[in-house]
Amino acid sequence: MGPLCCNESVHFNPYGGAAAQVAAALVNASTCAAAELLTLIRTEGMTLTSLTEEEATETAIWAQRLRPVFEETDPATRADLVNTLLDDSACRPYISRHDGLPPHLHYASENAGSVSRIRAYTAGGLAHLVCDAPDRIGHCASPGCATVYVDTSRNGRRRFCSTRCATRVHVAQHRDRQRV
Predict the structure, then answer these.
(1) Which of 108, 90, 112, 118 is nearest to 26 (CA)?
(2) What is the per-residue pLDDT for 12?
(3) H helices within 133-159, ranges in order?
(4) pLDDT at residue 16, as a whole number
(5) What are the tens digits of pLDDT across the range 131-151?
(6) Residue limits of the Zinc finger CGNR domain (predicted)?
């Protein structure tokens, strides 16, 4: 696991971190409107400049394919799921030089379309995460909640998507114990 930074979050490499976060955000997105998805993707750290409505629809379909990776608990099956995503995204490394940045690694050509870049970025990020920190990926343990997450907590023991879900479950458990 990488070093901790000043806010005590765990640092992952650029694809395992930001890319896996983009994957989780896409899975959790309740919309496939292009402007909203573009904002979401950029907020999570991917430098994407445009997204058409058609590309947003394709991205939403891709997000449905990402969900099983977060929900699977068997490491071998999870690895197989990610390998299929890597295959289907035509993910392969490229050294990229854009926006005045020093050369850095991308998993799609900088000339590839937005959907290809999103697919390669998220598949590559999940691959790094599954290899480097497989216990830091999951879905909310609250019954009825479908939210997925990348666990960047210090201790790596996250079970819920939010404090709200955790509190709801713990309060219900407390009430059940009081009835006994």
Answers:
(1) 118
(2) 44
(3) none
(4) 64
(5) 988 889 999 999 999 999 999
(6) 136-178
Strands 148-150 and 137-139 come out as antiparallel
Please tell me the number of Cα atoms within 13 Å of 61 on its side-chain side: 10
DSSP code for 103: P
Q: Is the pTM of this model over 0.85?
A: no
Q: Which of 142, 111, 137 lies closest to 126 in space, CA to CA? A: 137
Between CA 67 and CA 102 the distance in angstroms is 33
CATH of domain 15-179: 1.10.3300.10
Handedness of CA 139, 75, 84, 106 (dihedral sign): positive
What tokens does 61 get?
Answer: 């379909």
Q: Closest Cα partner for 62 from 126, 134, 136?
A: 126
| Residue count (the chain) | 180
Task: Delimit the domains of the chain by residue range.
Answer: 15-179
Which pairs with CB-CB distance under 8 Å and at least 24 residues apart come from 46-51? 46/18, 46/19, 46/22, 46/117, 46/118, 46/121, 47/98, 47/99, 48/114, 48/117, 48/118, 50/114, 51/114
